[in-house]
Write a structure and sequence with these properties.
The chain has 15 helices and 18 strands. It is an alpha/beta fold and 554 residues long. Strands 1-2-3-7-8-9-10-11 form an eight-stranded parallel barrel. Strands 12-13-14-18-16 form a five-stranded antiparallel beta sheet. A three-stranded antiparallel beta sheet has the order 4-6-5, with no helix packed on it. The longest helix is centred in the middle third of the chain and has 19 residues. It starts with 7 loop residues before the first helix and ends with a strand. The chain binds 1-deoxynojirimycin (NOJ). 1-deoxynojirimycin binds next to loops.
Length: 554
């Protein structure tokens, strides 16, 4: 059996140097985590109440989705004031209590910062509307005259990531149709102009505001965005840009100038570290075409981490997974930075459903594969992010009625894309019926998205009581990760395996093997595994759709 001596990682706790290189961070989608007020929307006091649960799970930190004042057109990714808390979620005093509680438990806290765009209700955008064409206030955003007769056509042909054109026309003070402004997402999310010096200065102030309140770092929204091609030219293939959605309009994303911003933000973090020795973390949401491009964002003086989404987008297939892992190890870890693995987040269909047949309810193939994928991810070198509910094996809610959907993508694609509401349904905590302990204090309170009856099977109270649950698998995986020096940072070595199976070694002797097929195969290692995502009834056999870890004398 494995060595249960505490590793350097455990001993050092909050003081461990470069703690983020192999950290496991839990993504809290605040509005769906736990509601302390009974209005059906999760809040910061709810997050505070849930911290002991997360401590028990064993995560190193949490990332809080945006809770700033916002009209909530994109659930907080439309920020009207970057230095406050929306009353929907609490207030700054509650935030401070949450920070203090997290600190006591040794849980680090990352905030979600949104530098590519703000809300159309941000005071600076309102000022820009009022100030008119050519003003300094408009220079903070991308305002431009339209094309065609009367400027009635948008300034270029770019598409918004949420569907429809990336430009909206404003009505000027004289009541006439006027200039257009750029929004790569919803019209309520105008893009900042990062070529205006005031933008960087304002974000410096915002970062300091939160760093001074003791946070441990930022998750950076759209971190390959910010700068646009200076001339805002037409795209050669706007349809392709629209289709790839998360990917890259090469004129709107991934401009070379953005790297200087990450260098500035990194120095700012280091300024804070120099004061107290505590490393602050910057993790970027970086969607770029290749692992090599990705690696440029995590150079030693830029972001500490950037989500590597290729694992999330890979189909359940051994060759596809191996390619993704090998490329990341070579092109990202190979340059000295750490790979940041993700299987789920608030923008994607949950793994249990993604890997299963349509509409699995958590008991079939999709669930087995999601468990296997989790154990694979936790064995990989680098950092990992777990999205709330992933540890409960929550499937996607695929049949939400149209009239409850709130994702702007649904509206802007003429009801075609039902992408993001189904993974945001409020968490089930206890009991047999909605709200499953999600809301408290008010009789008959309704969660902001309806929870299906079958959420009962996944409630945290059941998960904790059942040692075969997803929850226990995640917890044991996390415990082993923090106690076994082989896991976390470092490299991996592939073993020869038959088609449909992957196996690799961590350190000298930890073997992780994944059977992507549905039939049992000979295990690459004899003996009983240390941990397995499914039943391993016979030594030397790896059942279908299962991952297992062994310690072995190779
Ligand atoms: C990425 C976030 O994860 C997503 O939820 C949001 O809608 C867009 N960025 C725009 O801020």
């Amino acid at each position: 059996m494995h060595n249960r001596q505490p590793s350097q990682r455990q001993v050092n706790g909050l003081n461990k140097q470069h703690w983020w290189r192999d950290a496991v961070i839990y993504q809290v989608y605040v509005r769906s985590f736990l509601d302390s007020t009974g209005d059906g929307i999760g809040d910061l006091a709810g997050v505070r109440a849930g911290l002991p649960y997360l401590k028990k799970l064993g995560v190193d930190g949490i990332w809080l989705s945006p809770f700033y004042p916002s009209p909530q057109h994109d659930h907080g990714y439309d920020v009207a004031d970057y230095c406050d808390v929306d009353p929907l979620f609490g207030d700054l005093a509650e935030f401070d209590l949450l920070m203090a509680a997290a600190r006591r438990l040794g849980i680090r806290v990352l905030l979600d910062i949104v530098p590519n765009h703000c809300s159309s209700e941000h005071p600076w955008f309102r000022e820009a509307l009022a100030a008119g064409p050519g003003s300094a206030a408009r220079a903070r955003f991308h305002f431009a005259d339209g094309r065609g007769p009367d400027g009635a056509e948008p300034p270029n042909n770019w598409h918004s990531m949420f569907g429809g054109p990336a430009w909206s026309r404003v009505t000027e003070a004289d009541g006439r149709p006027g200039q257009w402004y750029l929004h790569m997402f919803a019209p309520e999310q105008p893009d900042w102009n990062w070529r205006d010096p005031g933008t960087g200065a304002e974000f410096d102030r915002i970062l300091r505001f939160w760093l001074d309140r003791g946070i441990d770092g930022f998750r950076i929204d759209v971190a390959a965005g910010l700068f646009k091609h200076p001339e805002l030219p037409d795209s050669d293939d706007p349809e392709a840009d629209a289709r790839t959605r998360d990917s890259v309009n090469p004129l709107a994303w991934n401009q070379p100038e953005v790297h200087a911003v990450w260098r500035d933000w990194r120095s700012l973090c280091e300024e804070y570290t120099a004061r107290d020795g505590r490393e602050r973390l910057l993790v970027g949401e970086v969607s770029v075409p290749t692992a090599r491009e990705h690696a440029r964002y995590v150079r030693s003086d830029e972001l500490h981490q950037a989500f590597f989404f290729d694992l999330l987008s890979a189909p359940w297939d051994a060759d596809a997974f191996r390619k993704v892992v090998s490329e990341a190890m070579q092109d990202i870890a190979g340059t000295g930075s750490t790979v940041t693995w993700v299987l789920n987040n608030h923008d994607q269909v949950r793994t249990v459903t993604r890997y299963g047949e349509p509409a699995t309810e958590g008991s079939g193939l999709g669930a087995a594969r999601a468990r296997a994928a989790a154990l694979l991810m936790l064995a990989l070198p680098g950092a990992a992010y777990v999205y709330q509910g992933e540890e409960l094996g929550l499937p996607e809610v695929v049949d939400l009625p149209d009239d409850v959907l709130t994702d702007p993508i649904f509206r802007r694609t003429g009801s075609r894309a039902r992408i993001r509401d189904g993974c945001r349904v409020p968490l089930p905590w206890s009991g047999q019926a909605s709200p499953f302990g999600f809301t408290s204090g008010v009789e008959g309170a309704k969660p902001w998205l309806p929870q299906p009856e079958w959420f009962a099977q996944h409630a945290t109270d059941r998960a904790l009581a059942d040692t075969r649950s997803f929850w226990h698998l995640y917890r044991e995986g996390l415990q082993l990760r923090s106690s076994l020096p082989q896991l976390g940072e470092g490299t991996l070595r592939w073993l020869d395996t038959p088609p449909g199976v992957l196996a690799f070694v961590r350190g000298d002797d930890l073997v992780c093997a994944v059977n992507f097929t549905t039939a049992p195969v000979p295990a690459p290692v004899p003996g009983t595994p240390l941990l397995a995502s499914g039943d391993c009834p016979a030594a030397g056999v790896l059942p279908g759709s299962t991952t297992a870890w062994w310690i072995n004398d190779l």
